[in-house]
Structures are given as C-alpha cells and as structure tokens.
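Dear colleague,

Thank you for sharing your sequence with our group. We've completed the structure prediction you requested, and as agreed, I am returning the results in plain text so they can be pasted directly into your records. Please verify that the sequence below matches your submission; if there's any discrepancy, let me know and we will rerun it promptly.
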Amino acid sequence: MSLDLSNIGTTIAAIGALGTAAFGLVDALKTLPNGGISNQGYVFIQQAVQVLFGSQTSRATATGDLKRLFDTLHGNWINGVALADQKAIAKSLIKLRLDANTAAAFAAATDVDAATLKSVGEKMTAGTSLDPKEMNVLGRFDLALTAILDDGYQHADQKYRNSTKLAATVIAVALALVGVHLAIASPLPQDYWTAFLVGLIAAPLAPMTKDLASALSAGVKVAQAIKK
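Please find the predicted structure tokens below.
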C-alpha cells in the first residue's frame, strides 16, 4: 500500500476522515458507566475541592450537601460545560458553603485569617454587611479560591484532551490495520507499517484536514507547473 502523491488532496482527506471516525468512536465511549472517557481528568477537580473540605472527602464518600456539590461538579464535567462556566459555578457553590463550620478549613487552605473568615461566613449567612477588614479577607479568600480551582480545572482539561487524543489514535491505528487486512488480498509487512503510520497521524490531522488538503494540493500543482 502506498500514498498517491498525484492526488494528495484525496489522500489527506481520507486520512482525516479516518481520524474523524476514530474521534466519533471515542465520543461513543462517553456512554459507558460513570461518563466513560468523559470522566478523565475529573480527579484533579476532586483534588482541588479536597484542599478545602479534607483529603478524605470524595464524590464516593461524601454525604448530604457535600455529595450534592461533588455530583454537580462531576455532572458539569462529564457533560462538557464550558470550562470558564464550570469554574464560576464551582467557586459560587463553595462560597455558599462558607460558614462558621467550614471557615477554619477554608482559611487554612487559602492562607487567610481564620477568625475573620469565620466572621465573614456568619455575616454572609445572616445577610449583614461586612466591615473593611472582613471585605479584605473575603477578597483574598476569593482570589486564592480562584487559583485553587483554576489549577484543578486546567490539569483536568489537559488530562481529558490528552486521553481522548490517545484513545482516538489507538482506534485509528486499529481501523487502518483492519482496513489493510480487508482491502488487500495478500498484504505485505510494509502495507501494515504504512497503515500503522497513517493511523498515528490520522487523529491529529483530523481537525485541519480540509485546509491542509487544499494547501498541499495547491503546492503539488505549483510544483508540477514549474516542472513543465
């Protein structure tokens, strides 16, 4: 099996279609229990929340109001809600849980004064106004909380993207090898190696197939015209 450079646009489009099909099959894995591959990366979000609520707390072990928090964050994650919206929702839900009981843990995690943050939690619960010192502590707490959540969500997003790309590449390689086996009566070792290499580049190539095919086709035509 060899690549036809005289019709490179079609070749690139076919490779891109293989990558697109592989990503489609990866997307189908989201129907597996617990979100399937969509669950990849969520552990970093859980770890970020654990900084505030305790290292032994998880979606599996939490109960009551805290379990609802973890379930909400997990649901938003596996459903692919925009990352900025997820972080905003997470921060709002955590700040709603700031009270006299959580103030000490929150203060330790964000390096602010625990007594003042406790006062902030009590006043927020009661709906009374904060004094300047409390406003300052609340502002510092807000910034630290934003940084903690941003770190968790950025690592989660990277893990998810890398996992889906790896899964798509494995599927693309498998599809290419099966295709060679079915399409060629007596495939040679080099045919399988070509299919393997095509599968490796299919997933990364898929998002830019159209533009790349057009550019390479134009380049080939220019080269042929110069040669003539």
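Summary note from our side: Residues 5-227 form one domain.

Kind regards,
the structure core
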